[in-house]
Amino acid sequence: MAGFFKTVTFMVLVFAAAVFAEDYEVGDDAKWARPSDLEFYNTWASKKTFLVGDVLDFEFDAERHDVAIVTADEYENCEKETPLSLIKTSPAKIMLNDTGPIYFICTSADHCRFGQKLTVNVVDDASGAGGHSGGGGATPPAPGGATTPTPGGATTPSSGGATTPASGGATTPAPSGATAPGSEGASPTTPGAGTTAPTGSGETAAPLPAESTASSLGGASFMVALVSAAVALF
């Protein structure tokens, strides 16, 4: 039974990787050829986010071009004598299996020196890259940003243009039948007192205690840990 669950888990992981993997056609419409701009392919790559499991699709004229995977030094100097891998058939589909930079060049003539070279930096989505967002995509706001009012006088405009006072100077309206402190001409509700002091019945309901929120989060974390442990046992 344990072996069955392990097999199912493995198949689910493989299926998830296949679903979320991206297939990139290198150079888009220009494909893999000698470009007019020396930085054409690296500019193309800078607008992409490459994750482990993605595929690079090199389409080229096999009589004039090829695809070689080389080291960083070979890439920098366009050395083509001893590539790590050389593909001469098109299309060439290369899966990105590891994180880090990968270097590609064309070994035909001086094509590499004329810009037919590409570097891609592969990242692991588990590190929080956030999927296949473009290189210039928006970054999610960091926790604790200035989107919520801070105690002590900061205000946040509402939809109608009014401002909501922060907790440092807020006045809580008194309940029906009670008189707010300091109101002129108001009748005190406490015998013998000139002004009405807030009583327990006139206080507004307190927010949910931090302990309750922490308990809820702790319960959720416990359930996640329990499920993870059960999966690990199988």
Automatic annotation (TrEMBL):
* An example molecular function term from Gene Ontology annotations: electron transfer activity
Q: Where is the signal peptide?
A: 1-21
Where is this chain compositionally biased, Low complexity type?
144-207
Give the InterPro entries listed for this entry.
Answer: Cupredoxin, Phytocyanin-like, Phytocyanin_dom
Q: Which residues form the Phytocyanin domain?
A: 22-124
What keyword terms does UniProt attach to this protein?
Disulfide bond, Glycoprotein, Signal
Q: Where is the stretch described as Disordered?
A: 130-214
* Pfam families per the UniProt record, alphabetical: Cu_bind_like
- The residues forming a coiled coil are none
PANTHER family named among the record's database cross-references:
BLUE COPPER PROTEIN, PHYTOCYANIN DOMAIN-CONTAINING PROTEIN
What this protein is called in its record is: Phytocyanin domain-containing protein
